[in-house]
Each structure stands twice: as structure tokens, then as C-alpha cells.
Amino acid sequence: MTIRVIIVDDQAMVRAGFAALLSAQADIDVVGEAPDGRRGVEVARSTHPDVVLMDVRMPEMDGLAAAREILDPPVGVVHRPKVLMLTTFDVDDYVYEALRAGASGFLLKDAPPADLIGAVRVVAAGEALLAPSVTRRLIAEFAAQRAAPRVGVAAALRLNGLTPREGEVLELIARGLSNQEIAGRLVLAEQTVKTHVGRVLAKLGLRDRAQLVVFAYEAGVVRPGTPG
């Protein structure tokens, strides 16, 4: 099935370059583009993409605000694509907040072309782009800058609803391990790990792996800098 993509970036050259690269892939179709966040929301609503490539810093409406509108649409809007944030900075508070809002991950604008193509496919498949070590570092650094984790009553109840095995899976996800790596660590089949991940998402009321990582840090399930 073809992956429908829109590109939201205030630099025309960036949009053109990304569009040319992605359109050359047999399984990716660039269905729209926009020069700012406000227009990006409008294009997303009209074209119904699978993935939105969203720049962080733009005029009119920045990428964070646009991602929030796309991922938490008003009543009556049922389509909610995946959002992949684009940034020129490897550590950016906007990106952390975007992950909290439900973005599926982030990618540096100067990443190799193959990484961009792979990122679109990963996010379209429902996975979060959290494997690169820079992502683990970003989340750890910003979690460390915040106050000590305080688990609210609702969050504590959701955590208590996890089985011991699900708790282990949550912790390993938060440390940046892939399903394959978790399977090896816990001596489980990879499909079994996928099942556990799905149950953890459902019990915690979270959208995807990216939000699992943020939740785990903020709830104190893992602490930045602790060994994996």
C-alpha cells in the first residue's frame, strides 16, 4: 500500500528536495506540502496523509502547535496521521514537547537520504522513531532538566494495572531498546514482545511507543542516566 506524505517546512528548497527524494520511492506518494504550520494543518485535513513531515520552527504557527492540532483534532475530524518532526538541532525542547503531544518521533534535517525514507516507512507502519541514540539522549536530557518525577493518582493506578512482565517491557522500551532487543533480553519471541507492547499501550491509554518513553521518564519508571 502506498504511503501518503505531506511536507511542512518554511524552506522551499527543503520541501522540494524531500519531495523529490520521497516521490522516487515506489511505495511513497507526496500528496501535498505547506510553508507553515497553519497551512500544514489545512493541507493535512484536506489530503488525509498517512505521515506528516513537520518542521519544528516555522512562521505563522510552529511545528509543535501544528502537531498538536493534527494529533488532537476537533470533534468531527476523524483522520489523524502520524507526525514526524524535522529539526536542525539534535536536542530541542520543542521536539520533547512534540513527543508528549503524540508525535511519532523526530529526524534531523541533515540525516542521510536513506534515513528519511526509512523513517517515513517506520512511522507509517505504526512504530515510533526512537531507535537512534540521539533520541534517547534528547529524552533523557529534557527529563533530567525537569523536577523530580511525581506520579499522579491516575498514572499510578495505570502503572499498577501492568503485570510484572509488562512493567519490564515498559522499562526496556524507555531505555530505547527495540522489540528485537527486548526479546533477546527477556528471552521471548519477538511476536510476544509486540503483544506485550500493545497491552501496555492499551492499559496506559497511550498512542504509541514515543509516548510510552515520555510517560516512563515522567512517572519515574526509569531515570535519565541510569544504566540499561
Summarize the structure in words.
- The protein has 11 helices and 5 strands.
- It has helices at residues 12-23, 37-47, 63-71, 93-101, 113-124, 133-145, 153-160, 164-174, 179-186, 190-204, 209-218, and strands spanning 3-8, 28-34, 51-55, 82-87, 105-108.
- It starts with a strand and ends in a 10-residue tail after the last helix.
Can you give me a brief rundown of this structure?
By secondary structure, the chain is α/β, with parallel strands linked by helices. Helix content is 52%, strand content 12%.
From the structure above, extract its key features.
228 residues, 12% strand, 11 helices, single chain, 5 strands, five-stranded parallel β-sheet, alpha/beta
- State mean pLDDT (0 to 100 scale): 84
State the order of secondary-structure elements, H for helix, E for strand.
Answer: EHEHEHEHEHHHHHHH
Strand proportion, as a percent range, falls in: 5-15%
Q: What does the radius of gyration come to?
A: 17 Å
Helix content: 40-55%
Indicate the low-confidence ranges by residue numbers: none
Write out the strand line-up for the largest beta sheet, numbering strands in chain order: 2-1-3-4-5
